[in-house]
Automatic annotation (TrEMBL):
Gene name of this polypeptide: der
Similarity comment: Belongs to the TRAFAC class TrmE-Era-EngA-EngB-Septin-like GTPase superfamily. EngA (Der) GTPase family.
Domain EngA-type G positions: 3-162
Binding site for GTP 1: 9-16, 56-60, 118-121
Subunit and partners: Associates with the 50S ribosomal subunit.
Role according to the record: GTPase that plays an essential role in the late steps of ribosome biogenesis.
Portion of the parent chain present: 47 to 208 of 486
Species annotation: Streptomyces zagrosensis
Protein name: GTPase Der
Length: 162
């Protein structure tokens, strides 16, 4: 079976945009409305000659009920079952309490994690990415999922972790 790379993070950080970028086509659901990806969705992908599965997940939130809680549980299941995790953070917002809570879950899951500092659309935003060293997950990889900036280097790191 192909190795699985799960893409996780709180709502609206750009997980699905990143998955589309990885796939090179518009397939994962992206909307301006937060939290639109409800379930884990698996896609077959290829990068640098390696085939793998990329799993888009819904936005993880803490202390939620009903559908949001089910979405969060699915995201937790993805963290626990994937071979490696791409943790997406919105570098224009910085590390939030929710991001810190995800870090705890990731530590518990014990899978290799690559920290994707998303929405670094230009060089001026690199400093925002560097601020995410504070999460304690190692090097933040500056990425613009929207424009493709940095996604190759981030994927190299993720595939190295598989
Ligand atoms: P998800 O909820 O984490 O899956 O986030 P989406 O992929 O649906 O994206 C949420 C919003 O962030 C959308 O309006 C995207 O266009 C926007 N977005 C995603 N990636 C980037 C990026 O690299 N730069 C900027 N400026 N916006 C982005
Ligand atoms: Mg999504």
């Amino acid at each position: 079976p192909l190795p699985v790379l799960a893409v996780v993070g709180r709502p609206n950080v750009g997980k699905s945009t990143l998955v589309n970028r990885i796939l090179g086509r518009r397939e994962a659901v992206v909307e301006d409305r937060p939290g639109v990806t409800r379930d884990r969705v698996n896609y077959e992908a290829e990068w640098a000659g390696r085939r793998f599965k990329v799993m888009d997940t819904g936005g993880w939130e803490q202390d939620v009920l009903g559908l949001d809680a089910a979405v969060a549980a699915q995201a937790e299941f993805a963290m626990e079952t994937a071979d490696a995790v791409v943790f997406v953070v919105d570098s224009t917002v910085g590390a939030t309490d929710t991001d810190e809570a995800v870090v705890k879950l990731l530590r518990r899951a014990g899978k290799p994690v690559v920290l994707c500092a998303n929405k670094v659309d230009g060089p001026a935003a690199e400093a925002d990415a560097a601020a995410l060293w504070s999460l304690g997950l190692g090097e933040p990889h500056p990425v613009s999922a929207l424009h493709g900036r940095g996604t190759g280097d981030m994927l190299d790191a993720a595939l190295n972790a598989l």
